[in-house]
Amino acid sequence: MPTSAPWDSLWIDLSVATMDGATMDGMATGGADAYGAVADAAVGIKDGRIAFVGRRADLPDLPEALATEVHSGQGGWMTPGLIDCHTHLVYGGNRAREFEMRLNGATYEEIARAGGGILSTVTATRAAGEEALLAATLPRLDSLLAEGVTTVEVKSGYGLDTETETRMLCVARRLAQVRPVEVRTSFLGAHALPPEFKGDPDGYIDRLCAETLPAIAEAGLADAVDAFCEGIGFSVAQTRRVFETARRLGLPVKLHAEQLSNLGGAKLVAEFGGLSADHIEHLDEDGVAAMAAAGTVAVLLPGAFYALRETRMPPVDLLRRHGVPMALSTDNNPGTSPVCSLLLMLSMGCTFFRLTPAEALAGVTRHAARALGLSDRGVVAPGKRADLAVWRIEHPAELAYAIGLNPCMAVVNGGVARRPQGPAGVL
């Protein structure tokens, strides 16, 4: 409670889904306490941090005496600000034409011969300057922000050379300067084989480890290092070399793993104490056990599952049994998940992967924060960063239930309230 200077702001007339693991029970079964709910609540904010969470009846004084600003939640719900923990937001061009070609019966090889596939995005991204990349990225980001997203991860990986990978990550850093959002960046140089190294993946990994990754680290442009460990990507041995370089440079790792086959990528990233293993449709129990022992988060990506018409689901029951946290994300990218709605991923996570609505919401709040190595957000609790979203709903399950409806009525970024589609401070 304030003892001298008042709180900067106070939210009343709402319920709060704290998503705080210390106060939650029955998540997997959708129990009454699955959201860490506080009814008729109040949330006080001071210096960009949450100062109080509790029942309004427990406030010692009238709201106007406790805070400089008092906001009404209009009978809705407050949650932590949403976190999109796996995106490829920064890229040039798009691949709508090859999407159309696929639907008209073209094979992968035919699309590649016509200039499609990931290398078409590499070509477009290499040709785009920093301002063009920024302009192309902002509409995608704005769509996420309108849905209560307050933190977003952005990967490189469409440059595949030092110059373009650097440019992509510079643009990702700039997003936080021009929009009310926190950005975490991941270097994904080991995403695909560039055309100049055709037939020589080891040579490309040599350059990545000796030149590109050290340059990115020295410039402070990456918060983590990612890779695509897959038959059409890079082998376990090649990925290990990337991770060893990351470890020497003091950068945590994460991995695109077990999406199309089981190469043991999840066990590899767990061996390095990795933040997350992402996709994981082909993950087995040995991999799950390794992730559980290492504290590695499973990031589920239903948008790619949908776009690729996959049929093999991630082993959700195994993940539950071993206590592996499950995050959800858009995987926004031009080829296999052109998704700009994290709320849609809540619905797809429940419908496709059989998550409960409470598990899905945890997957875009506290578990998504953990997948980025962030312990200061993702729950509504005293001392945490005041990144919050306020929703015009009667129950948190509505966030996963409704399709195509955005009930976000307000967002708080580091204590600053704004309307979901407006600039900071307009509330």
TrEMBL record:
Keyword Ribonucleoprotein: no
Known EC number: 3.5.2.7
A Pfam short name: Amidohydro_1
Domain Amidohydrolase-related: 78-393
CDD domains recorded: Imidazolone-5PH
Top enzyme category: hydrolase
Keywords: Cytoplasm, Histidine metabolism, Hydrolase, Iron, Metal-binding, Zinc
Entry note: cofactor: Binds 1 zinc or iron ion per subunit.
InterPro entries linked to this entry: Amidohydro-rel, HutI, Metal-dep_hydrolase_composite, Metal_Hydrolase
GO molecular function, one term: imidazolonepropionase activity
Pathway: Amino-acid degradation; L-histidine degradation into L-glutamate; N-formimidoyl-L-glutamate from L-histidine: step 3/3
Binding site for Fe(3+): 86, 88, 256, 331
Catalytic reactions on record: 4-imidazolone-5-propanoate + H2O = N-formimidoyl-L-glutamate
Subcellular location: Cytoplasm
Family from the record: Belongs to the metallo-dependent hydrolases superfamily. HutI family.
PANTHER family named among the record's database cross-references: IMIDAZOLONEPROPIONASE, IMIDAZOLONEPROPIONASE-RELATED
Protein's name in the database: Imidazolonepropionase
Naturally occurring in which organism (per UniProt): Azospirillum picis
